[in-house]
Amino acid sequence: HVQLVESGGGSVQVGGSLRLSCAVSGGPISGKCMAWFRQAPGKEREGVATTDKDGTTNYADSMKGRFTISRDNAKTTLFLRMNSLKTEDTAMYYCTQAVGLGPFAYWGQGTQVTVS
Questions:
Q1: 10-12 and 18-25 strand pairing
Q2: Longest dimension (CA), the chain
Q3: Distance between CA 64 and CA 21 in Å, rounded?
Q4: CA–CA gap between residue 30 and residue 11 (Å, rounded)
Q5: What's the pLDDT tens digit per position in 11-51?
Q6: How far, in Å, are 52, 68, 80, 115 from residue 18 at the CA level?
Q7: Where are the beta strands (DSSP E) in 1-116?
Q8: Selection from 104, 92, 35 nearest residue 67 by Cα
Q9: What's the rounded Cα separation, in Å, for the pair 26 and 48?
Q10: What are phi and psi of 107, to 5 degrees?
Q11: How far apart are CA 91 and CA 5, in angstroms?
Q12: CA-wise closest residue to 67 among 116, 113, 104
């Protein structure tokens, strides 16, 4: 049974940085497509960044150059380094894992990021 647990969120000032972690248990993350999503109050969930099974990364336009997604396959942990944070980055951040070439099927409970 795959479980994802995010951590590292918190309150930070504009321009600050945070590193989010997502600990995965119940299976490997190597060879898996992983991603970070976020959802702000009153808004739809949006994709932040993905890392494919071959290590290719992709970012939403507003995160390019500021956020970095990475993974430690040995420790089955996904990371999101966020720099130059803006108030509009305030949201609940979720990590997720895809099943094969299918949709993102496993989700964590989220970690709150507040930028003020």
A1: unpaired
A2: 38
A3: 19
A4: 31
A5: 999 999 999 999 999 999 998 999 999 999 999 999 999 99
A6: 23, 11, 8, 10
A7: 3-7, 10-12, 18-25, 34-39, 46-51, 57-59, 67-72, 77-82, 91-98, 104-107, 111-115
A8: 35
A9: 24
A10: -130, 145
A11: 17
A12: 113
Residue 68 in tokens: 């970095």
CB 110 within 8 A of CB 92: yes
Own/partner pairs for 98-104, CB < 8 Å, 24+ apart?
A: 98/32, 98/33, 98/34, 98/35, 104/33, 104/35, 104/37
The residue count for the chain: 116
Q: Each residue of 78-102: pLDDT tens digit?
A: 999 999 999 999 999 999 999 877 7
Q: For residue 70, give the amino acid letter.
A: S
Q: List the structure tokens of 61.
A: 């336009």
Tokens of 26: 């119940």
